[in-house]
Amino acid sequence: PPLPPYSEANSADPADVNVIVDGIEVPYDVTDPVYWFRRLEIRMQTVGIGSQFWKRVALEQNLPPELCACIKEYLILEQSEAKTVYSDCKKTILENYGPKPEENIAKAQRITLTGTPSEAGKQIRELICQKTPHFKDCCCSAIVAKHWRDVLPPEVRYSVASFDLQTQFDNAMAHADNVYRTVKAVATASAAASVA
Questions:
Q1: How far apart are CA 26 and CA 63, in angstroms?
Q2: Once rounded to an integer, what is the mean pLDDT over residues 86-93?
Q3: Which of 79-83, 120-124, 159-163, 188-192 has the weakest average pLDDT?
Q4: How far apart are CA 25 and CA 40, in angstroms?
Q5: pLDDT value, residue 191
Q6: pLDDT at residue 2, rounded to an integer
């Protein structure tokens, strides 16, 4: 059977887990709690924290006090009662403070091309698809493709029209960036030639 996601797993901890937990510092990011949880979980995973109880301890140490208030009922649980405590805390925090799908769609619709096409594409993907890995067992790739292509200059948009973002995301981003750089270089050269 497949392993549960790290946030739901409950396994053994190293003997010095109490010392290890004290060394985990991931400042809370109020603007992107989903990303913050990913960073915290990677940090906990790399030092071997496996139990729900000690994940919860690390979480509490890294949360601002006002967020602890919304999970108070979980923070008082004894270790023997804490079989899903970290997972429950995470779900509660994200329900209360995490992004709402409709807000993310609105943010994605407001993205404009200020850098490279791949930067815009990755921002849109992050906002719309909450899966890890992205586009797994969902239909988000079509929505991401629509919003991303809408922000692209016509030449770039036409060049990536045949890419399926669900299976070719990285290739589409690289191709779009290459075409974008070429279009900009040609425009710059044309402008310089017309001035001369």
A1: 9
A2: 97
A3: 188-192
A4: 8
A5: 84
A6: 80
| Alpha carbon 142 to its chain's center | 18
Residue 142 CA to residue 187 CA, distance in Å, equals 31
**H, E, C per residue of the chain:** CCCCCCCCCCCCCCCCHHHHHHCCCCCCCCCCHHHHHHHHHHHHHHCCCCCHHHHHHHHHHHCCHHHHHHHHHHHCCCHHHCCCHHHHHHHHHHHHHCCCHHHHHHHHHHCCCCCCHHHHHHHHHHHHCCCCCCCCCCCHHHHHHHHHHHHCCHHHHHHCCCCCHHHHHHHHHHHHHHHHHHHHHHHHHHHHHHHC
48: left (phi over 0), alpha (psi -120 to 50) or beta: left
The tokens describing 88, both together, are 């429950």
**What's the pLDDT tens digit per position in 30-63?**
988 989 999 999 999 999 999 999 999 999 999 9
Compute the distance between CA of residue 158 and CA of residue 149 in angstroms, rounded to an integer. Answer: 9
Six-digit token string for 180: 């974008």
**Cβ atoms of residues 28 and 57 within 8 Å:** no
* 164-177 confidence digits (pLDDT tens): 999 999 999 999 99
Q: Give the pLDDT band of residue 196 (cuts 50, 70, 90).
A: low
